[in-house]
Amino acid sequence: MNNKKKKIKRKMFFASSYEIRAIENFLEEEAEKGWMFERCSGMFYVFEECEPVKLKFQVDYFDKATIFDTNPESNTLDYIEYCSESGWQHVFSSGKMQIFYSVQDNPVPIQTDEKMKLKLVCKATILANWINWILLPLIWGLFNVREMVDELLNPNYYFAYSRSLTELSEVGFVVFWLAFTLLSIVNMARFGIFCFRNKRRLKNGLGIQYYSSKNIKKYGVFHQIYLISLLVLLAALFTKDHVSLYLMIEFIVTILMIFLISKMTYSKWANRKANIVIMLVFPIVVANALIFAFMGSISRGDAKLISGDAIYVYSTDDIDLTLEDLGVDKPDEFLYEETVHDKAKSFLGMREVYSDYYNTEDNSYGYSIEIFSSKYKSIMDTYNQLVLEDEYYTYTGLTATKNTWCSDQVLYGTGEDVSMYVVVQDGITFVIEGHLNQEQAAEVSSYYMNMASALTR
Fold this sequence. Notes:
By secondary structure, this protein is an alpha+beta fold. The chain has 10 helices and 15 strands. The chain has a 7-stranded antiparallel β-sheet, with helices on both faces. A 3-stranded antiparallel β-sheet has the order 1-3-2.
């Protein structure tokens, strides 16, 4: 008895569900090479090693099946039995799609009504792709991208503008959405051409004309080049900030989730009811878990304080110039001191933030400095304009001091609660905000200006 385990091969084939002639030809070619089709998920096809054999494959769509039927339900089983009586052996089910093969050279087609066949193919394609082609681009565009683009093109706050330019998580998401939407439009256009062209052909008494296998292969190469280029571009935009790291984790988790859903829904015990739960509930649970994790990452910190019913999570990063160094008196009662050092860099600019605050239950006392630089004059002009046109501050120009150069623009802004000290140089700006007087703010700017100057030497 031969117990040798048969080899399994996985292969990508970029064909949409309406391109059934190309799928049939692909499966027949693999069978002749000694690989028998077993199952598929999206563009991934699985084959088992066999003796080379010449078979005829047929892809058909059974309208009474649902998108949740990965294993045939009772009405689908009756349909499969009917097809088997005509010499068609069932291989695989996925929703409405049913794949058969026959050993006969010229078997009788399962579906002989071309108009009905076109109707079923178009209906099944729309049901299988409307989320990717329409819903996701629309939702992302309305609720995420529109706000991100508006924030990038019409920024309101200097710190939000510098963060978006250096962390690039928003830019990366906009690029991803544009690429995803463009690919969806191209796919919808191809499908639309297929449907309208064949409706006209059937009216003229002609048969359905499918895209050729050569055309499908070329389109598959386009898909691969497009996706690889997108990944390279997103990798170039990637920065080591916590939002970008979260998006990378979200992408990896999504891929794993798709893999797990595919494994569970195509298992032997899968049925319609179980698949509804898996396909609908599981993604919602994972999405909420990711959102919860992201919200936790925003309030990240390396220290924790419990005071009554409240829990405070805060950072204790090392910084060189503390409030104590500046001679700032501690409040009579404060819960904790938080020190932060953040740094982000991209091809558009560099942003570095240092801060030190004494925190009470109701207020914070301290300072923060943001150092932003860019080699692009238009970016620096926009950033400086956002700083100097802040509606909460009234600025007074200062003459250059020993801490600054004659060419520097130095301003001291007074607001309702805190002050702002700004030094504008060529290609770099220092913004100090907090509970500091003019002399303390000048000391902070001097220290970090010297540090920045030393780093660029």
